[in-house]
Design goal:
InterPro entries: Lea14-like_2, LEA_2. The protein contains two helices and ten strands, in the order αβββββββαβββ. The strands form two sheets. Strands 3, 4, 5, 6, 8, 9 and 10 form a seven-stranded antiparallel sheet that branches. A three-stranded antiparallel sheet has the order 1-2-7, with no helix packed on it.
């Protein structure tokens, strides 16, 4: 074996080792960024009061129709398919309105936007509430809860269950029929 053959074998081994280190670094970066699956974010963009009826005599009551603008933000590199879910409107922690969030798909790194109409009625309240006092003050404090569950599909091979949850608080000014102070967590 000549002196030149030993050096070429050493160079070849050095190139192979450098290639393996480089490939390992690429795979590690890919695994830590692209393959990291995050939960989607569901949010209210806006809420509009479409119709409103109230009665503040003996038994105070409110009936209204709300139009909600909802977004499902998918920050993953794969699409998010979610099932039917429920949006619940609450008054003092008691449900007064529900609507179905239809199943759908948010594309990779995109935001899916849609509108949902929700019927809200104080007839669903039971027992002793402060509805009459809130109506007299002119401000009605409401909250909402929604959870969207589904699967994130990465490269049509990896499927992982994830869910996004929304809890929002807001007030409705009864004089102007406008939603104010919308805060989501």
């Amino acid at each position: 074996m000549s002196k030149g053959e030993g050096r070429s074998k050493t160079k070849c081994l050095a190139y192979v080792a450098a290639f393996i280190v480089f490939q390992t670094a690429i795979i590690l970066v890919f695994a830590l960024t692209v393959m990291k699956i995050k939960s989607p974010k569901i949010r209210f963009n806006a809420i509009e009061v479409e119709s409103f009826n109230s009665n503040s005599t003996n038994s105070p009551s409110i009936n209204m129709q709300l139009l909600t603008h909802i977004t499902v933000k998918n920050t993953n590199f794969g699409h998010f398919k979610y099932d039917n879910s429920t949006l619940t409107i609450l008054y003092n922690g008691m449900p007064i309105g529900e609507a179905v969030i239809p199943r759908g798909r948010a594309k990779a790194r995109k935001t899916k936007k849609f509108n949902i109409s929700v019927g809200v009625s104080s007839d669903k309240l039971s027992g002793n509430t402060n509805l009459g006092n809130d109506m007299n003050s002119g401000i009605l404090r409401l909250s909402s809860h929604a959870k969207v569950s589904g699967k994130v599909h990465l490269m049509k091979v990896i499927k992982k269950k994830k869910s996004g949850e929304m809890n929002c608080d807001w007030t409705i000014n009864l004089a102007t029929r406008e939603v104010q102070d919308l805060k989501c967590k």
